[in-house]
């Protein structure tokens, strides 16, 4: 099972409005990992305590119930800090200081960038996927960041490719949807659905790039 990258966890906790004790930090990390492995319903506070190296009573001194732990600590870390932080990090790594002459070049950088992130933080991604459907605050955060920050940059870049006749003149929203769904489909299959399959990652990434590029160009 992929675990939450410790450096990323610390960065997320550092920007939290609520200062956590070392024991609380261990509890949060353990909760994220176990929630991602088993889901919230199947996870137990005894498992979280064992993973964190604390007594189960320590959890209940800070959080009255398992749900209180999820709502009070884990979801705020994810919805208020993790998603915005990761979006800013993604934007800086992809768009800052770089010009893309070809669509292949852009897609390759995006896919390898998100591949490395998901590889290191599969646990965080699982929590987001499991809980975002049930918690409006996570959904709203995603919508705000992707619609206001990521989508405009992506749209501008796609318009540049349009002027170079690399893309057909179809709605930008359609290009965005097709690209994102294909990349996410690859990453989810690779790291969550069938992670133990004998993947040839470089080959799969190149297939994904060509599928997106040639598929969009073929649209009329």
Automatic annotation (TrEMBL):
Keywords: DNA-binding, Repressor
Gene3D superfamilies in the record: Tetracycline Repressor, domain 2
Residue span, HTH tetR-type domain: 21-81
Regions crossing the membrane: none
DNA-binding region of this protein: 44-63
Pfam families per UniProt: TetR_N
Protease in keyword set: no
InterPro entries hit by this protein: Homeodomain-like_sf (IPR009057), HTH-type_Tx_Regulator (IPR050624), HTH_TetR (IPR001647)
GO terms of molecular function: DNA binding
Keyword Repressor: yes
Protein name: Transcriptional regulator, TetR family
Record lineage: Bacteria, Bacillati, Bacillota, Bacilli, Bacillales
């Amino acid at each position: 099972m992929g675990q939450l990258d410790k450096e990323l966890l610390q960065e997320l906790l550092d920007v939290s409005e609520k200062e956590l004790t070392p024991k609380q930090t261990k509890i949060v990390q353990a909760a994220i990992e176990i929630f991602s492995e088993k889901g919230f319903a199947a996870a137990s506070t005894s498992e979280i305590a064992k993973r964190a190296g604390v007594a189960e009573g320590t959890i209940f001194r800070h959080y009255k119930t398992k749900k209180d732990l999820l709502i009070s600590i884990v979801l705020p870390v994810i919805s208020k800090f993790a998603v915005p932080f990761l979006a800013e990090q993604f934007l800086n790594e992809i768009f800052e200081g770089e010009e893309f002459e070809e669509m292949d070049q852009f897609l390759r950088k995006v896919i390898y960038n998100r591949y490395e992130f998901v590889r290191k933080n599969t646990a965080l991604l699982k929590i987001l996927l499991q809980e975002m459907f049930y918690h409006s605050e996570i959904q709203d955060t995603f919508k705000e960041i992707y619609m206001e920050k990521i989508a405009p940059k992506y749209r501008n870049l796609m318009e540049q490719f349009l002027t170079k006749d690399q893309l057909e003149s179809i709605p930008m929203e359609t290009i965005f949807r097709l690209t994102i769904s294909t990349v996410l489909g690859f990453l989810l299959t690779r790291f969550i659905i069938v992670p133990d399959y004998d993947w040839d990652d470089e080959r799969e990434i190149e297939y994904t790039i060509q599928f997106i590029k040639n598929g969009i160009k073929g649209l009329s």
